[in-house]
Amino acid sequence: MSAGNLLYAQSGGVTAVINASAAGVIEAAQKSRKIGKVLAARNGIIGALREELIDTSLESAAAIKALRHTPGGAFGSCRYKLKSLEESREQYQRLIDVLRAHDIRWFLYNGGNDSADTANKLSMISEKLGYPLQCIGVPKTVDNDLVVTDCCPGFGSVAKYTAISIAEASLDVASMCESSTKVFVMEVMGRHAGWIAAAAGLAGKKATDAPQIILFPEVVFDQAKFLAKVKAMVEQIGWCSVVVSEGVRNAEGKFLSEVGSTDAFGHQQLGGVAPMLAALVKQHLGYKYHWALPDYLQRSARHAASKTDADQAYAVGKAAVEYALKGMNAVMPVIRRQCAQPYRWTVEPAALSAVANHEKKMPPRFIRGDGFGITAAARRYLAPLIQGEAPLPYGDDGLPVYVKLKNRLLPKKLAPYRIADK
Amino acid sequence: MSAGNLLYAQSGGVTAVINASAAGVIEAAQKSRKIGKVLAARNGIIGALREELIDTSLESAAAIKALRHTPGGAFGSCRYKLKSLEESREQYQRLIDVLRAHDIRWFLYNGGNDSADTANKLSMISEKLGYPLQCIGVPKTVDNDLVVTDCCPGFGSVAKYTAISIAEASLDVASMCESSTKVFVMEVMGRHAGWIAAAAGLAGKKATDAPQIILFPEVVFDQAKFLAKVKAMVEQIGWCSVVVSEGVRNAEGKFLSEVGSTDAFGHQQLGGVAPMLAALVKQHLGYKYHWALPDYLQRSARHAASKTDADQAYAVGKAAVEYALKGMNAVMPVIRRQCAQPYRWTVEPAALSAVANHEKKMPPRFIRGDGFGITAAARRYLAPLIQGEAPLPYGDDGLPVYVKLKNRLLPKKLAPYRIADK
Fold first, then answer.
1. Which residues have C-beta within 8 Å of that of residue B377, sequence separation ≥ 6?
2. Is residue B350 included in any domain, yes or no?
3. Smallest Cβ distance to B296: which of A14, A290, A387?
4. pTM value?
5. B172 vs A168, A180, A300: nearest CB
6. Is B397 a catalytic residue?
């Protein structure tokens, strides 16, 4: 007779390796033989509220193993934040009802700082209500903005994809610049912090290597300085590659993408800071340009994942189960850097309350004095995170073999539930 | 005493595997011991006109070998088309002067149908002028629009990248669609023909697999039909992935990207058909969307190259030298499909005149009746081209190890030359 079931849920934007964390959770739970069923909420916390619980024991061992190399969220994720205990008391209560109905004693929530907050609150309310529940966070976010942990699973892979992509595209630009494109602009994710943009800097070692210019959300955009730098690079080497974070703002604090669209082009949602900058270059310097916006391609690119990242994602899933079995509550396994070179890391528990609702910004010492690149300190921090390749199986058709789970739901035991203001 | 030198030049948009052709040329020439030096024109035909000739014998064997996995154009390429013999007679004459000055007896031109035309004309004029020269084309283009050949080196890799990317991004979309993005639009290259867009179709086997909608330049855009299909897919499975070729036009024959920018958003060069379609979906159906435009990332993505493609690129380079040594002139090695399944191909010579100035369109039988996908015939044609992975070395830094050649120029022997109307 087991001690109850475990519920795992994915939250927020998915990554190339969030399913590796799921595999870590499920395999560790099965191996322990101390946990009944591992259930997964369908589409994240929404599914938990709706009592849409996937029975992962119906999946084959091979399918669970294949999660380790399958991007996206295998059980579905969602953008849905529970509010404070006061405002959302009824929803927390509903969660407890669902957990109780299915004998769930462990809740593992795989997400960012919002999710850490939710898991923390759920742990508090369960105690208040006298329902025995352990809540464990599992870290995930391409934004790399969780505090306490050295880095966030999901980030290393988008970092690697970004560095590879700008290196490759820049070889293209360099070889054609004599008679074609001279300026290439690639826009990357990162509305609040420039971690992904910074990772692009790993592609270049010298000042003339691509990307010659990185624009961070942390640095106010200075049009004259930017154009002068582009011009200087084109005059020196014939071309210039720019990596720009979607979150770059002007001196008035407005996103550049919005400035572009509202001032001159009429339609905000069309935006994208890359085309706006490219047009600026054309207008002021007359150079031929191209721009790219990989969008979801960057955060789902499992085919170019970092081994470090994939390993860490699996490890935090596994550790979450170990903590659960040790009786720990309201904690999250985080990555601790033991040594930068060679990179050695361990997983250790941190209080959810220490992680919840904080945001890790890039330290100013990671950004070069001229604002257009990364420092040696940033390089030391970032470099290990993209190390190693994480090979994945390809089929005879030349495509990666990604798993699609059966995702069969448990029969419901409670009355239907309607989620307000979803 | 050798029989003279060989000049190799890259032309037009570069690819993930054009340097593999260069490696094929250089290694085959060295191995033959019948060719003096292999020279490479700096930045394509422009360098040949300017007498900027790179001495590839100064590169190490390891560097030449590494070309096989390095994207971009290692010697530089250009967009510069020589006109007719009458209009550009002086330029053809100049080329002959340069070739004569450096004892060049073989000219290998690595490009698309324009380049085949130039090589063909150069062969004619050299004969007229009594200069002994053999001109051989080496096929290359991501557009896959050369006739005679089964496919074009460069296309298979962009095809593979495109299919992988839409598969991965769609896993992301599918897992979030309940509460976030429902429609994802990815724009791919192909102004005149939908080959790259068609390749995206390899990612899906069933009608509900991504991409659920492909928009081809060959099919007139029908807004009502498009929106109805998007709506139907979202209602059926919750989300919809769209791959759109940059060359899609409306009933008036206008590029959709231009329609979007001139009608509503003011600035044409900002364009991109992906954001235009995404905005259309939002406006008419209200769905949350994301869009991606990988641009140069797609044609430089050597990290996701097709083995078939990389092998073919090397093989045509090697074959070009073999033809040269057999005394052939005005020919191009092309790929001949011997068998579709299992895919077997050979390389054989075709007359440059048969390839020059023609454009291979997608046959109508490759496009599904509803205009939104590929047929089984298209799948049979395309599938082999993305088969196999072409691994590449990664460094300790987690990045592909791409080679940068020394590219030392031979001393000039002629007077400086100014290129008109570049």
1. B363, B365, B366
2. no
3. A290
4. 0.97
5. A300
6. no
